[in-house]
Amino acid sequence: MGTRQKTSDERKRGASSAPPPRYLQVANDLIKRIAAGKYPVGSNIPTETELSQSYDISRHTVREALRRLHDAGLISRRRRSGTEVVATKPPTSYKQPVNSIKDLLQYAEATRLIVRSKTRIKCDAALAELLGCNPGREWLRVDTIRVLPGDSRPVCLTTSYLNIDLPNIDRHIGNLAGPVSAMLEAAYNLRIVNIEQSIQAVRLKKREAKLLRIELGSPALRAVRRYFDERQRLLELSDAIHPGDRFTYVTRLRRE
Q1: What is the topology classification, in CATH, of domain 94-250?
Q2: Could you tell me if 160 and 141 are in contact, meaning their C-beta atoms sit under 8 angstroms apart?
Q3: How buried is residue 28: exposed, middle or buried, by Cβ count under 10 Å (0-12/13-18/19+)?
Q4: What is the spatial distance between Cα 225 and Cα 62, in angstroms, rounded to a whole number?
Q5: What DSSP designation does 172 have?
Q6: Residue 201 is inside which H or E element, if any?
Q7: Chain centre to alpha carbon of residue 133
Q8: Segment (H or E) for 10
Q9: Matching CATH number, 22-85, of 3.40.50.1000, 3.40.50.300, 1.10.10.10, 3.30.300.110
């Protein structure tokens, strides 16, 4: 009997739920080993060469995995002194590297997404200005919460607006198993080439504080991101609120 050909929908679902990249798998495994006491605080984890051989990966992939552990506050890297374990679990503040579009797109891979609601809405004047469209235009609104593995306290409360020109976008959100941006690229065979981001300090309102399990009026970071494809079409706008004591942006700037 011949092998059944997968439908396009099945291929899209498979692509949108693809496993995380290898460096993230290695980073998560090292985090588990540190938490289990395999590498106690004060000890050194294996060298890049040893890790490369142990996991059968390139040195570049090893460095990316170790960078995740460093940004999470678990290790300290010093030249000629090795990589020392400084904590057995990440601090309560999630550190998000923001050095490239790649970092922004992969942020969601380290967290778990919980979809709270989705609905089609028509823009009023204020929302139309935010989205750069005419009042009355329809968008798909999706409300989500993100949590870190092993910690039920949210690190992010997000309202996203998705372009309904994308066919069956409602269904794809219903099958969401990973980052929204990754789903968009895989499901529609497109590439996000431009992200506009603005960040400002705010104080949590009553609804936000309740959902994020933090005191009313606490400081927070609001990050508004617009994702554009190669045609400069706005695919998604995300409006995210991060508790100030649980989230840190980390940016590395390099002079060329």
Answers
A1: Chorismate lyase (3.40.1410)
A2: yes
A3: middle
A4: 30
A5: H
A6: strand 192-203
A7: 26
A8: helix 8-16
A9: 1.10.10.10
For 192-235, what is each residue's pLDDT tens digit?
A: 999 898 999 999 999 999 999 888 888 999 999 999 999 999 99
Residues 162, 255: contact at Cβ < 8 Å?
A: no
Query: At 19, phi and psi to the nearest 5?
Result: -65, 160
pTM for the full predicted model:
0.61
List Cα–Cα distances, 112 to 54, 59, 107, 179, 253, in angstroms: 28, 28, 10, 9, 28
Q: Quick count: other Cβ atoms within 10 Å of Cβ 99?
A: 12
Q: Any idea where the domains of the chain sit in the sequence? A: 22-85, 94-250
SS3 content of the chain, % helix, strand, coil (to 5): 30, 30, 35
Residue in this structure with the two tokens 């409602």, named with its chain if needed: 170
